[in-house]
Structure formats: structure tokens, C-alpha cells
Design brief:
Layout lengths: L25 E2 L29 E6 L6 H15 L4 E5 L6 H13 L4 E4 L8 H9 L4 E4 L11 E4 L2 H19 L6 E5 L5 H15 L7 E4 L4 H14 L5 E4 L2 H14 L5 E6 L2 H9 L4 E6 L4 H13 L15 E3 L4 E2 L4 H4 L7
Parallel strand pairs: 2-3, 2-4, 4-5, 5-6, 6-12, 7-8, 7-9, 9-10, 10-11
Antiparallel strand pairs: 1-3, 11-13
Helix pairs in contact: 1-9, 2-3, 4-5, 6-7
């Protein structure tokens, strides 16, 4: 993890999960499994001449195993975006949570001499050297989300804004409490993994935004990014505080457990803000009647954007909406606030938890 922008991933390297062997490079499937209804990026209208077919390019792709909804959506968005281009061949390696196997998988993409590489590392520091090897071999690397410490290891970084997530959540909470005329609110926070820089950045953004309204966090506890722990932590906070005014949960995957605990308690005196922008959270927001009023995004659609950028870089093109001739060195995505008023616009971008 690094300490300066671009910020590290919403997902830490502490996640477990079954290890899937990473071996021979294979062309990825471009159609979703029939049983899988997870939305993928809806990329809108053509972006000028850049979307017209150009030089044929092969884009390699490597990411961790899809053991969480957000990670699963990363792979789906990348594959779906690549499918839109007749000039792109998408070559994916088996996803894995094993560092050494991901290194071997990336080396196989280097040996295959792909035209560009989109890489979401399990750990940016430990995958730094193999990414540098790709760059030294003339293969531009689009570093997705979890950043490599060496800027010579990637051509472009694209990812979310963890601090910005906290700011967006804090502003929503602060404005709502001011509207309600609450002067000394009880605000609780359900974090991901407290020791991770990404969690610390989210908490700092939340605290900084709340401070502008004269508010502070009453209590916070980390829930390890899991449904089970989310349920336990929410139950503990509900028992510890007989009255709550607002709750921010950092992660919509663990939010499944948080919401279950709240519903089981029957408590409705407070409102809740989620984090990351899952489809099930958006459906809950749209249905109304519950405590969940909003979620702040950390979009897995960044994978689709990464494929677009990799294609442009491999074809020697820049971004159509910029004056400059080359793709930028880094792109930090905004954390947007999804409420009942705009949820229909964001629903196609949500991921299944």
C-alpha cells in the first residue's frame, strides 16, 4: 500500500479464498454465464473517432479471484468492454489470490507479447517487479486500483477515491442531520479492515466532512469486509447505543450483514449510508421504507475504463475529450452519492453482493 495519491484499493490483501491455479494464457469468455445477472458497465455513446476500429491489439488481463461481489464485477466489466471492440483480442489468465501464481500468470502474458496489460494486483508492492518487467519489455501496463509503488512499473493508473468516499458519505450525513435539526447526533461507523490504509483514508474523509458541520463520529468498529462480521459488528453497535442518528457502512458487500442485523433489531430511528455502490444496496434504496438512504460509489466499472485506456495506449491514441495527445498518467474516479432521486441512473453500474 502507498501513502500518496493514487490511493490503494478498497480491497486489502488480507482476503482469503480458494486459490485457483494460474497457468496457460487463454482467451477469456466474452459472454456472461446464464445464471449470472450481475450488471456490467453501460458505456454510453461512442466517444468520437477513438471508438472506430483501429490497429488490432491484444490486451492481457489479470486480477484476483472473484471471492467478493466487487472483484467479480471487475472481471465482468473488463470482459464486457473488450467485447465491444472488433480490434481487441482479450487474453485473460486464471484469477488467483496467490501472489506467486499471479506473478507467473503475468509472466505468461509477457511471454505472449500482448500489446497492453491491465493488471489489478493482489498486492501492488509484491507484483511491482513483474509489472516493471512488462514495461521494460515494451508492454504498457494499466495499473488498476491497487497501485504499484514504482511509477516505472505502469504507464497509467486508474482507480477509486477512498478519501473521497468518506467525504461523500460525511457530507450526506451532515446535511441530513442539519435538515433534521439534530445538534448532538450519535453517528456510528462500520469500517472494513481498520489497519488498511484504504480504510483509514475513508474514515479520515468521513471525519473531515463531518467536522465542517460541527459533528464527530461517536463510535466505529471494523467488520473485515465480510457479511458475517458485518452482522456481528452492527449487532454490537445497536446494543451499545440505544439511540443512533446516522450510520455509515464502508462496504456494501459487508452491508448485507449490517442490514440484516438492523432489520432483525427492528430499529428505524436512524438512517444509513452504504459504500461502493452494489446493486442490492441500490435496490434497497429504490424500494424505500428502510434505513438505507444512500450509498457512495467505488465503481468496479473502472475495469471497463482500464480496458478502454489500454486500447488507446496500445494504438498510440489519446483521450478524445482532452487537448493533450496521450492518455494521462493517472485517473482518480469520483465517489458519487446514490440516493432515491438518482438511483435509476446508477442501477446499471451496480454489482451483485
Amino acid at each position: 500500500m502507498r501513502n500518496s495519491s493514487p490511493r490503494p484499493s478498497r480491497r486489502g490483501v488480507l482476503f482469503g479464498g480458494a486459490v485457483i491455479a494460474a497457468g496457460t494464457v487463454a482467451a477469456a469468455c466474452t459472454s456472461n454465464d446464464e445464471k449470472d445477472t450481475s450488471p456490467v458497465a453501460q458505456t454510453g455513446a461512442a466517444g468520437g473517432d477513438n471508438d472506430k476500429p483501429g490497429k488490432q491489439v491484444t490486451i492481457g488481463f489479470s486480477a484476483p479471484a472473484a471471492d467478493h461481489g466487487w472483484i467479480a464485477a471487475i472481471a465482468k466489466n473488463a470482459q464486457a468492454q473488450a467485447k465491444k471492440y472488433s480490434d481487441v483480442t482479450f487474453r485473460s489468465v486464471e484469477p488467483t489470490n496467490d501472489i506467486n501464481q499471479q506473478i507467473s500468470a503475468v509472466e505468461s502474458l509477457i511471454s505472449a507479447k500482448v500489446g497492453a496489460l491491465v493488471l489489478l494486483p493482489n498486492d501492488g508492492e509484491q507484483l511491482n517487479q513483474v509489472a516493471r518487467k512488462a514495461m521494460d519489455a515494451g508492454i504498457p501496463v494499466v495499473n488498476l486500483d491497487r497501485v504499484f509503488p514504482d511509477k516505472l512499473s505502469y504507464r497509467t493508473w486508474i482507480g477509486g477515491d477512498n478519501y473521497g468516499m468518506g467525504v461523500s458519505a460525511g457530507h450526506y450525513v451532515g446535511k441530513r442531520l442539519k435538515q433534521k435539526g439534530v445538534s448532538n447526533p450519535v453517528i456510528v461507523e462500520v469500517q472494513g479492515i481498520a489497519t488498511l490504509p484504504l480504510t483509514q483514508e475513508r474514515s479520515k474523509g468521513f471525519a473531515d466532512a463531518l467536522k465542517s458541520y460541527g459533528y464527530t463520529v461517536t463510535a466505529k468498529q471494523d467488520a473485515k469486509f465480510t457479511v458475517e462480521t458485518g452482522n456481528q459488528v452492527a449487532s454490537n453497535l445497536l446494543q451499545a447505543h440505544k439511540k443512533i442518528d446516522a450510520l455509515w457502512n464502508h462496504d456494501d458487500d459487508q452491508g448485507v450483514g449490517v442490514l440484516a442485523a438492523i432489520k432483525q433489531s427492528g430499529r428505524k430511528e436512524f438512517f444509513m449510508v452504504g459504500g461502493a455502490g452494489s446493486a442490492n444496496a441500490m435496490r434497497e434504496i429504490k424500494a424505500g421504507g428502510g434505513v438505507l438512504e444512500a450509498t457512495v460509489t467505488y465503481p468496479p466499472t473502472m475495469a471497463a475504463s482500464a480496458v478502454r485506456l489500454a486500447r488507446l495506449i496500445a494504438q498510440g491514441k489519446g483521450m478524445a475529450d482532452l487537448v493533450e495527445l496521450q492518455v494521462p498518467q493517472s485517473v482518480t474516479l469520483a465517489s458519487e452519492t446514490v440516493t432515491k432521486d438518482n438511483v435509476d441512473r446508477y442501477m446499471p453500474l451496480g454489482f451483485e453482493s
